[in-house]
Specification:
138 residues; mainly alpha; 7% strand
Amino acid sequence: MASNTNKRVAVKYVRDRAKSAYVKQNTCHICGTSEDLELHHTHSLTLLLNKWAEENHKDISTDESVIAIRDEFIELHYSEIYEEVYTLCNKHHVMLHGVYGKAPSLTSASKQVGWIEKQKAKLLGISPVVKGSFSDFY
């Protein structure tokens, strides 16, 4: 079996499988621009995969072992992978990661949602109602 030589290889196999079903909007959720759009997961896929693998005693140390479990992982984390995401322009995506770091902790997902909604409200000139839970917004 080929061992993974790069820590991001495991999540790459998951992303490659999930990518075809991603739904990126045509505009930034915050400012509405259609330029330089990126998809932001409020749950870092790398951290989510590593946590799940550890908690469930799943081997993700080889290419083959990741490929063997990725469909199960995607199915169990459908919401985090496909629903709890935002289309952001590069400017706002970089700003968000400036606040929450390159790989935001999994516990910061609701705070990220709050930050996104506050930024949008600021641009619209309204006061956001932010309770802090992803489901509070949808």
